[in-house]
Write a structure and sequence with these properties.
The complex is a heterodimer.
Chain A: E1 5-11, E2 14-20, H1 26-33, E3 52-55, E4 58-61, E5 74-76, H2 89-96, H3 106-119, H4 125-131, H5 143-152
Parallel strand pairs in A: 1-5
Antiparallel strand pairs in A: 1-2, 3-4, 3-5
Chain B: H1 2-5, E1 26-28, E2 32-36, H2 41-46, H3 48-53, H4 55-60, H5 67-70, H6 75-81, H7 87-94, E3 98-103, E4 107-112, H8 113-116, E5 117-119, E6 122-123, E7 130-137, E8 143-150, E9 160-169, E10 172-181, E11 188-189, H9 191-197, H10 204-217, H11 228-248
Antiparallel strand pairs in B: 1-2, 2-7, 3-4, 3-7, 5-6, 8-9, 9-10, 10-11
Helix pairs in contact in B: 9-10, 10-11
The chains are: A alpha+beta, B alpha+beta.
Chain lengths: 163, 253
Amino acid sequence: MTDTIDVELTVNGTRHVANVEPRKTLADFLRDDLELTGTHVGCEHGVCGACTVLIDGQAARSCLTFAVQVRGAQITTIEGLANDGQLNPLQQAMVESHGFQCGFCTPGFLMQITELLNENPSPTEAEVREALSGNVCRCTGYQSIVAGVLRAAGQPSTANSGH
Amino acid sequence: MPLLALRLASPAVLIDLSAVPGLDYIERNDGHVAIGAMTRERTVERSEVVGSLVPLLTEAMPLIGHLAIRNRGTVGGSTAHADPSAEIPAVALALDADIVVTSAPRGERTVPAAEFFQGFFTTALEPDEALVEVRFPVAQPGTGVAFEEATRRHGDFAMVGAAASVRTEDGRIADARIVTIGVSDTPVRCRDAEQELVGSAPSAEAFEQSGSLAAGACDPPSDLHGTTAYRRHLIHVLVRRALEKSTSRSGDK
């Protein structure tokens, strides 16, 4: 018998109240309890970056965070980027740059990039690569992802578009 | 959390300190910078106070995982975790930081870093104690620092690494601190390699000799990432590089 804990938090602007096991990760809580399955679970120990979400605006691994640790926090997931079905500028730039193939890593990349562009709207290519160094993609070879970020930021790119 | 995810640890009770007030601060005090246990690594990385007064700590921050890891990771957490490959324990050991711990029945006590790290993930913390603050001594004028690592991929745990802090005065080395990581069950202070330098003028030969002493003093593990001999070779090279870089940044500017 495991005790459960009441959690109140805001996800993509919507307030949620839930009763969760303390051992449940934020990733599992988002996926299983809130049915927000855009947050992907890859390695489950913080290395791959697929589960990255924003906690109070800061990128964090939702697989390394328990849901009970973010009581009162503002969480942003990949589902929170588009507005009324309209892709936001970052999502649109990633589409135009073919910045994904299978798409498994994409939510984590986009959340990490969202933090980067919030703090630094005009990053250099080196800054983009540094910021994305904790996200793993096994399809693209990264060039098209970096190109997508630079496109979103209106920056020139030496990275090719992946074609 | 990775320890839990990998089922390497299964604590009966786990307490999240995030909600405990008063543990998130960076304060300049007399001769040291006091950092609260729950201060995030990203906050330290951006701190101008740390950058100007404890530059070795600032130098170490970008080497810790990635942005999303440093947004959550804390100074107290890394120190109490005591991973022998971790950067913050190495900085604490190199600078002779004091680690403040507290317990309800006995109150506060201060443990020098040299006595705090006792083995793999093992520290001087008693079961009823919590780490509340780390006090990093302020770097003296003329100090230069460097932190060199060898990793398989950017942001990975270092196979091995070397931190150096060198103070030069009138063209001679007045103080040298060298710590290596990933070479034993704790970070290792290389006293012989330090002594080799103090009082002498910086030179390629002295750095080479110091790197050799540091390599000879450690007995790194062998695993699929690298053999003992390879890691020892890396220590030799990284200590030499860290000394070259820190010395070039030292002295009166």
